[in-house]
User: What shape does this take?
Amino acid sequence: MSLSTPEIENAEVLLAIGYNAPAAHPVVAAKMIKAKEKGAKIICIDPRFTETARMSEVHLQIKGGTNLAIMNGIANVILTEDLIDKQFIAEHTVGFEEWKPLIQKYSPDFVSKITGVPPEKIQSAARIFAKSRRSIIMWGMGVTQFTQGTDVIKGICAVLLMTGNFGRESTGIAPMRGQNNVQGACDMGALPNVYPGYQSVADPEIRAKFEKAWKPLQPLPAEPGLQLTRVPERVLHEKDPKKRIHAYYIFGEDPVLSDPNLEEVRECLSKIDFIVLQDIFMNKTSQYADVILPATAWSEHSGLVTATDRSIQKISKAIEPSGNVKQDWEIISLVSTALGYPMAYNNQEEIWNEMIEVSPKFAGVTYEKVERQGIVRWPCLSKDPSDTGTQILHKDGIFGLPGGKGVFKAADYEPVKEREDQEYPIALSSFHDVGHYSMRSMSGNCRTLRNLEDEPGLIEMAPENVKALDIKTGDIVRVISRRGHCYSRCVATSRIRKNTAYMTHQWWIGAVNELTVPYLDKQSKTPEYKYAAIRVEKIEDQAWAEKEVARLYEEIRMKSGIDEATRAKRSKKLPKMHSLIS
Ligand SMILES: Nc1nc2c(c(=O)[nH]1)N[C@H]1C(S)=C(S)[C@@H](COP(=O)(O)OP(=O)(O)OC[C@H]3O[C@@H](n4cnc5c(=O)[nH]c(N)nc54)[C@H](O)[C@@H]3O)O[C@H]1N2
Ligand SMILES: Nc1nc2c(c(=O)[nH]1)N[C@H]1C(S)=C(S)[C@@H](COP(=O)(O)OP(=O)(O)OC[C@H]3O[C@@H](n4cnc5c(=O)[nH]c(N)nc54)[C@H](O)[C@@H]3O)O[C@H]1N2
Ligand SMILES: [Mo]
Assistant: This one.
């Protein structure tokens, strides 16, 4: 994020695209509500009538997969109606003139045909956005989980640049990262192309620095590593034996549920010679593991975490771990030592100190400073107490690239990779909902949450489609795509358009990723999770379906090694429709 989360409260306009804070991030949602109470206007771009849409001044209920068309359309209106910030463009940006011609094509009428949103609504949103001096664009997985995700983000940046909404309080980009410490994992270098502190593996000087710090690990590879989503390709289709993957160390990840096109993931895992799983629970992937390394959970260890707005804060151990578990860093140190690279850290602070020693952007973030200030936002370049960190990136319109200018980049909208047809007439998408967390290894082990909502999960369908199938809310249905099928429980809702359907992604039986496509964004390699063509089939014998779902669930829990005692405690009957639906 270029701004900090508390600044959301003082925005004049919040544009949320493909992001539903009330379900995903309650702390952020509270800030949005405060902003609204202070008079801010909310623009929501989402094909579903979400809680954010309900809070909004304007809801652009686009057809799924048309984000770039709508962003280019908003830019077009701002351009045509001369609502641009000429001074900011002249002083702080490059590429505006080259960018303009492509945008001129995206007239409200043209964009309306692609997105299904009336031209007046696009104009109204663009005017509200451009006339404010404090506009923020927030986005979530409804932007990134598409093959054109990174292009849309360039489009988002262009709209902020042309209106001068960078580098001041309550302006800028707000990519809302998912899990609590996903930003921290990236900070620490858990990315294929950078070392800790976002330092490129391709840069020889940086590589030399790390070779010195990590002696005798040399030479360090000059090419980036592999993205998680490309593992199947390297196992199933790699011709070069040197590049083929034989062993897979899975750490805090449940790919048998979370990766797209699960049939391929299963084939991939069954062909890998050796799998290690390091987790706090047995999850669905544990059935493929040769070795399981049990780790402590968040309440059982201390450390630092980074939130979505670059703020680093301390967490402290609340309870003593029980059983045969170790902290993640201890496990990694032991494995590394056994492999011949000794790691002799005594605690997390020593690891952190090594990280800030070799990462200029983090050099000033000492434990002592974090403790004293409560939070420190990177970049924080100096240990000196006067450097308290960075609240706003690109302050005063000075950007990070050489020359300090923001760059306009344009891309044409491209349709999604898989389209509906006669056989698969419904467009399926997915979202993260309040009731459960991620792939449910954590919240699925909490009986109270399970009693509210359990397998096989839900599929939201438009009332017209429900009627046409002669089914009703609560019925179990079979959901089928070109790649696989699963069971889910139907919910009729007018939140969504006809011929679309929505599922949440965490169910073990109602597993949406049995259905999803394997196509990836060119740059980020994020899959197009949010669009696949499906059909839904009625199951006549509902009593059989209920039993079948219960049987399949028990079978997976057994195979995944979830213990007998837990199993016995579970109520035999699956709960009926739950209160969250209403
Ligand atoms: N309770 C709970 N909270 C969570 C999580 C959880 O599992 N449970 N997961 C966490 C994680 S890891 C993440 S990443 C975040 C995810 O939270 P968000 O970033 O909000 O992502 P999603 O809910 O996946 O999708 C956001 C919205 O995108 C919309 N969408 C679908 N297709 C399109 C499209 O073509 N265009 C646009 N503009 N929108 C579209 C969906 O309708 C949805 O409302 O939530 C986090 N918070
Ligand atoms: N169709 C579809 N698919 C999606 C999505 C979608 O919207 N639609 N969303 C995607 C998104 S945004 C995400 S983030 C992924 C999530 O997918 P994953 O990251 O695969 O799912 P999690 O359940 O978060 O897996 C985390 C694992 O880490 C374990 N864990 C928790 N804490 C610790 C710890 O401290 N140490 C260790 N070692 N393990 C721990 C948990 O028990 C769990 O098994 O799913 C993606 N998949
Ligand atoms: Mo996520």
User: Anything to note?
Assistant: The mean pLDDT is 93. The CA atoms of residues 183 and 306 lie 6 Å apart. DSSP finds 22 helices and 21 strands in the chain. The longest strand covers residues 485-492.
